[in-house]
Amino acid sequence: MQVNESIENYLEMILILHKKKGYARSIDIATELGVTKPSVSHAMKLLRENKYIVMNPDGAITLTKAGLEIAERMYDRHKMLAKFLMSLGVDEETAFNDACKIEHDISDKSFEAICRHIK
Length: 119
What we know:
Distance between the termini: 35 Å
Structural class: mainly alpha
CATH superfamily of the largest domain: Winged helix-like DNA-binding domain superfamily/Winged helix DNA-binding domain
Number of helices: 6
Number of strands: 2
Mean pLDDT: 93
Strand content: 5-15%
Number of domains: 2
CATH architecture of the largest domain: Orthogonal Bundle
Low-confidence stretches: none
CATH class of the largest domain: Mainly Alpha
Shape: globular
């Protein structure tokens, strides 16, 4: 399975929900991402089939090691890019929204340069 922006967003949101609430469920993912429940159900099926997540009988979603690696990489990028934008004077909400768009397309080389600049 090719990991695209949509898959990265779902995995990252599962991680964020776990950090915020201690669990992730499909309805929470749909609400946070602003997508429909059927869209989330389809995505969760793909993620399960490709061994990025495990769904418990009670509906709780857990990241596998492979899913967690992708989710953490995207979440770290998101936070670092938002921090960079805020250092330029962008307000926090805008910075986090824009970072979400940038994190998927920026090259590793450019991202590493931003990280060096921030540190």
